[in-house]
Amino acid sequence: MLKTVKGVVLREVDIGDYDKMLTVLTAEQGRISIFANGVKRLKSPHFVATQLYTYSEFTLYGSRDKYYIRECTKIESFFGLRDTLPSLALAAYIAEIACDVSLEEQEEDTLLRLVLNSFYCIAKSSKPLDLIKAAFELRVLGEIGFMPDLVGCADCGKSDFETYFFDVEGGTFRCDDCFHRAEPGFEASLNRQNENEGIYSGSRLIIPLSRSVFVAMRYVLYCKPERLFAFELKDEAQAEFYSVCEKYLITRLERNFASLDFYKSVKQ
Ligand SMILES: [Zn+2]
């Protein structure tokens, strides 16, 4: 039975000289594997639509173990992604995360839109790559169920502080007063470390955040999907925001990404 899906190619593995195995994130079926027969030949009618990071419409046959292409048509190739090595490396990182967190045989409309929005923004290079990266990291965690509690201090419930102490594993914030009441001795260790790196309180990673970073996190998690990258950060808040989003992702997904190391090694 034929089925038609729209999806973005997240991964490709060469099979012999002419074929590829694709991992595609679709709105309708989540993450699927597609055996793409003969697509490495330049004259293949499916050559363009099966390129890495291309968003295409596929008409498929087969079953959940492996699908085969009857027809496919490119919708968007995000050509600008390939303009620089850092932008390509960021696309690879986003694709690797999407592969990791996506489900099979289940709707993944929200995740697909998030990946497409990110690719679009990278391709037209309208925002700093680090901002796109951080906003993607935080938003994707919110979408898969790791929404931090951004209402206010986890102990006293108040909000609006100069500094917020973010418990990375718990995804909760505390105000200065409540935090120091619970964690006496924190200040001494904080002074010995780079604040952007956070510090460990017992086994828990705590990152002190400024008000503007807290506001940016709230924005990224609650804005409309199409407004995700439509915010700016003052220079001094940027490094803090980028760092906390990455640490939150690595902590919550409990793994490292080779593509992240690569991105860091090539970015300007
Ligand atoms: Zn408090």
Number of DSSP-assigned strands? 9
* Rg, Å, rounded: 21 Å
CATH architecture of the domain at 1-77: Beta Barrel
Secondary structure class reads alpha+beta
Could you describe the 3D structure shown?
This protein is of the alpha+beta class and 268 residues long. It has a domain at 1-77: Beta Barrel (OB fold (Dihydrolipoamide Acetyltransferase, E2P)). Helices cover 37% and strands 25% of the residues. It has eight helices and nine strands. It has a five-stranded mixed beta barrel with strand order 1-2-3-5-4. A four-stranded antiparallel β-sheet has the order 7-6-9-8. The protein is elongated and about 65 Å long. The protein starts with a strand and ends with a helix. The structure holds zinc ion. Residues 153, 155-156, 158, 174-175, 177-178 line the site of zinc ion.
Task: Supply database-style keywords.
four-stranded antiparallel beta sheet, 268 residues, five-stranded mixed beta barrel, binds zinc ion, OB fold (Dihydrolipoamide Acetyltransferase, E2P), 37% helix
Blueprint of the fold:
Elements (H helix, E strand, L loop, with lengths): L2 E13 L3 E8 L3 E7 L18 E9 L2 E11 L8 H17 L7 H15 L5 H15 L19 E5 L4 E3 L1 H7 L3 H6 L7 E3 L2 E7 H12 L12 H19 L4 H9 L2
Concise synopsis of the structure shown:
The chain is of the alpha+beta class and 268 residues long.
